[in-house]
């Protein structure tokens, strides 16, 4: 009886960790940001920041998180495409997306855990390789690569991601296959996510779904792992590039946190294929708009 009680207590403690760790990290991050950057804000500046532009960034955050939480992909690709098309520079957009994702993916991970959408074994396989890839990509973009030079390449990369999303949506009769080299997949997904401002979901989720994995647990697990990937890349951006574009970041955070629980609830309620095609087409149009400004 005592042994059974001990096992139950251990299991209960581990369950609490899945919620406790994201919450503690996010609270710690929030206090760190306030402590380090409070001098940059004034009440007048704070109030002035809530203008039409803020509402645009908030709306982008709401839409991007709804896409990501329900499809398991597309937050970075959707928000980056919108921000680039709106005229936000690549380094600012990528930093904003990843700093905001530290909060939105945390909310998403907690929501997916609450709705029972997580395969913990899959999360553990993706976690460390994905973090290593994201740190490498964030460092290169912050300290080595010129954002203005790679802006057209990011737009092209977003079009490729959109094509992958549409292709996966239109694919029929998916045969379940064993997924090999999960670590390599996670490293590549984390790296491209940091450099391009998106790609973790389209690369990792679409590959796993293409292998016939259960959509509900794949989406929930990839979203849960994405919290660690976003946290690692966001911290790297802060250390090497600083933080710019507070209005963008706060708008994306509030919009994403607002819609995360709804997205987790809707993951099994919506028709995935039409939405994936619609999101893919939208990303292509936004990326073409960005390219047209550069050419």
UniProtKB/TrEMBL annotation:
One of its GO terms (cellular component) is plasma membrane. Keywords: Cell membrane, Membrane, Transmembrane, Transmembrane helix. The chain crosses the membrane at residues 17-35, 55-75, 122-141, 153-170, 246-267. It is a multi-pass membrane protein. It comes from the Bacteria. Its main location: membrane. InterPro entries: TM_pro_TauE-like (IPR002781), TSUP/Inactive_protease-like (IPR051598). Pfam families: TauE. Belongs to the 4-toluene sulfonate uptake permease (TSUP) (TC 2.A.102) family. This is Probable membrane transporter protein. It comes from Flavobacterium johnsoniae.
């Amino acid at each position: 009886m005592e042994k059974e009680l001990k096992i139950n207590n251990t299991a209960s403690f581990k369950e609490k960790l899945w919620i406790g760790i994201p919450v503690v990290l996010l609270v710690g991050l929030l206090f760190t940001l306030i402590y380090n950057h409070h001098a940059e804000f004034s009440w007048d500046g704070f109030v002035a920041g809530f203008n039409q532009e803020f509402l645009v960034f908030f709306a982008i955050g709401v839409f991007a998180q709804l896409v990501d939480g329900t499809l398991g992909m597309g937050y970075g690709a959707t928000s980056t495409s919108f921000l680039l098309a709106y005229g936000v520079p690549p380094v600012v957009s990528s930093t904003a997306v990843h700093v905001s994702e530290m909060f939105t993916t945390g909310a998403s991970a907690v929501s997916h855990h609450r709705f029972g959408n997580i395969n913990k074994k899959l999360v553990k396989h993706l976690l460390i390789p994905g973090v290593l890839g994201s740190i490498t990509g964030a460092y290169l973009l912050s300290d080595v690569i010129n954002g203005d030079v790679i802006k057209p390449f990011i737009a092209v990369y977003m079009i490729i991601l959109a094509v992958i999303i549409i292709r996966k949506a239109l694919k029929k009769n998916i045969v379940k296959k064993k997924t090999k080299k999960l670590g390599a997949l996670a490293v590549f997904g984390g790296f491209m996510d940091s450099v391009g401002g998106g790609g973790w979901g389209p690369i990792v989720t679409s590959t796993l779904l293409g292998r016939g994995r259960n959509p509900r647990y794949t989406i929930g697990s990839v979203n849960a792992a994405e919290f660690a990937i976003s946290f690692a890349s966001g911290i790297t951006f802060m250390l090497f590039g600083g933080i710019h574009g507070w209005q963008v970041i706060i708008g994306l955070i509030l919009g994403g946190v607002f819609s995360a629980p709804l997205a987790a609830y809707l993951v099994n309620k919506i028709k995935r294929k039409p939405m994936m095609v619609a999101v893919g087409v939208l990303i292509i149009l936004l990326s073409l708009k960005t390219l047209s400004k550069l050419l």
